[in-house]
Amino acid sequence: MSTKPNHLSEKKPLASKLQQNGSSTSNTNKMKTSVVPNKKANMKNTKQMKKSKFSKSTKVQPGSTDGQRKWTTLVHSGVIFPPPYQPHGVKILYKGKPIDLTPEQEEVATMYAVMKDTDYMQKPKFLENFWNDWRRILGRNHVIQKLDDCDFTPIYEWHQQEKEKKKQMSTEEKKAIKEQKMQQEEKYMWAIVDGVKEKVGNFRVEPPGLFRGRGEHPKMGKLKRRIRPRDITINIGKDAPVPECPIAGESWKEIKHDSTVTWLAFWNDPINPKEFKYVFLAASSSLKGQSDKEKYEKARMLKDYIHNIRAAYTKDFNNKDKDPTKRQIAVATYLIDKLALRAGNEKDEEEADTVGCCTLKVSNVECIPPNMIKFDFLGKDSIRYENTVEVELPVFKAIGQFQAGKGENELLFNALDTSKLNAHLKELMPGLTAKVFRTYNASITLDQQLYEETEEGDVAEKVVVYQKANKQVAIICNHQRTVSKTHDSQILRLTERIETAKQELKELKIDLERAKKGKPPLKGADGKQKRNLSPEAIEKKIASAKQKIEKYEMDMTTKEDLKTVALGTSKINYLDPRITVAWCKRHEVPIEKIFNKSLLAKFAWAMDVDPEFRF
DNA sequence: CGACGCTACTCCGCATTGCAACG
DNA sequence: CCGTTGCAATGCGGAGTAGCGTC
């Protein structure tokens, strides 16, 4: 440990070696994963080669990109910092009286005040963490000794007023401000990678604030301090000018020229200094597009291996070796394949307590005879995964045995972790890891659904088919969203509308009968006398009323159906865009009906796909 | 470990909707 | 009276953000 050489000097030779390596030849990578046990797949590959805009540069195979040069020249302008804190002159009350604070102390107070109507204010952990950090900034001997004695309402009200002012601004004023911001930011928005102008993803440094973790995060409420230029490392081409530091008198932490990585800048996360925040190119850049394509190609490759993989793990369900690892791997792989679970890395105590496949606890699964398993756990982002599934009997038995003799809080797969699991998967297929199954399952489901369910009809009907398939994928991946605050009132309003429309319909039917006999219509619910109408006119009205009811009822079911399902996440991250593009081409659906502007940009690489493309 | 992918949330512009006034 | 227009309320979805996972 202590005998570490001066590792800083080691990096230079490494970097220059890579430079050399990269410039010596255009293609040093071997196609190590080209042994595809399937002629069809090979044909597809050659077909794409002709058209793909990456065909020249896509020699890098998935999973073999480590140490590879990602770019040759890189020019960019660094990052932009959030504006400095402007004192608003509003004081908090301490024991009922306004109190003077330093700008720094006041900034933290403001962060707290503006979170008033979030539910974090109800969480003791949040209050405790905030108070600890704030007290540190106030100093131990500060007059303020208790959070409870502080009243933040003046700042809160000031903040509300500011928000109101902003709302009241005319569209012209808003536009002018936006324009100005754009002008300031313009130069940061772009990077020039190998001579090509590409969009930068996140060139704005994260502003200071109070940490808002997802779920029961142990660090919620902690102060996320302001990031300064001295925190930031810049990565840029050797020959490119070093971006000028935007804050006078300060300077960057370090300038690097590492062409094996794609980040333009990074800083340490102030909440967890062991972690990093990176500035990357935008999703629409070809660098990201290329790796996106590689991701889907890897998932497609799994299609050719999946049969054997399934056969292998099915065989291992009953494996009763001395070493239980094999059997656990088999069951874990089965779950990842069948349920699209995440791998489940171990987590720190300092993070929210969530689990994935390898970290499932005994209490997260319940065996319901004869062969049902109930899953209930908090996954990524503390989103609850609740699902009862029928499993093959050997799996049911195995899970029961993994549970046996363990406490509720112990690991179900005690002999397993993600690195063991992934190491095993890599033996089955080059580059295979747990997450590939999610991509594979999502995309293959879409592909199949679209092929099976699309019928003749108008564009709107086909779009509904797509959305249904998309929804199915979102459910598989457990992509959720919180029910909107107004959902209940929306539903209520819809039911009211349906009710009145039905009432109207009823009256119309009576009126129709009466009109046929030449009698005048009855008085309406409001007591008003209605006009005499011909039976034909009434029938017309009946038809339109019926249509209205139908529409409202449709609206309501889809709204209720999708209230907790988020379709966007899978569209952006899991569904091979070529499936969608090909489907649109085959069925003459304008691609814009499915992909918005940013998706079209992100998936530019997929647009020239063959209409007969299958995932 | 460091680098990258994934994910839900917020905010805001804009289209849609419902309703009243109007011709 | 009925269809059109104008207007405000509503809500949808795109863009951006920052935190969460994977490998």
Written overview of the protein:
It is an enzyme of class 5 (isomerase). Residues 57-69 have a biased composition (Polar residues). InterPro entries: DNA_brk_join_enz (IPR011010), DNA_topo_DNA_db_N_dom1 (IPR013034), DNA_topo_DNA_db_N_dom2 (IPR013030), TopoI (IPR001631), TopoI_C_dom (IPR025834), TopoI_cat_a-hlx-sub_euk (IPR014711), TopoI_cat_a/b-sub_euk (IPR014727), TopoI_cat_euk (IPR013500). GO terms for molecular function: DNA binding; DNA topoisomerase type I (single strand cut, ATP-independent) activity. It is a single chain. The protein has 615 residues and is of the alpha+beta class. The protein has five domains: 93-161, Arc Repressor Mutant, subunit A; 176-286, DNA Topoisomerase I, domain 2, CATH 2.170.11; 289-432, Topoisomerase I, Chain A, domain 3 (Alpha-Beta Complex); 442-482 and 566-606, Topoisomerase I, Chain A, domain 4 (Orthogonal Bundle); 487-562. The chain is built from 17 helices and 15 strands. It has helices spanning 7-24, 39-51, 103-113, 124-138, 153-168, 171-185, 286-316, 325-339, 393-403, 418-428, 434-453, 459-476, 487-516, 535-562, 568-573, 577-587, 597-602; strands at 74-76, 93-94, 97-98, 150-151, 190-193, 196-199, 209-210, 223-224, 233-235, 254-256, 265-268, 276-279, 365-368, 372-378, 384-390. The chain has a four-stranded mixed beta sheet with strand order 10-9-11-12, with no helix packed on it. Strands 1-5-6 form a three-stranded antiparallel beta sheet, with no helix packed on it. Strands 3-2-4 form a three-stranded antiparallel beta sheet, with no helix packed on it. Helix 8 packs parallel to helix 11 (434-453) and helix 13 (487-516) runs antiparallel to helix 14. The longest helix has 31 residues, at 286-316. The protein binds a DNA duplex (23 and 23 nucleotides) through strand 12, helix 7, helix 10 and helix 15.
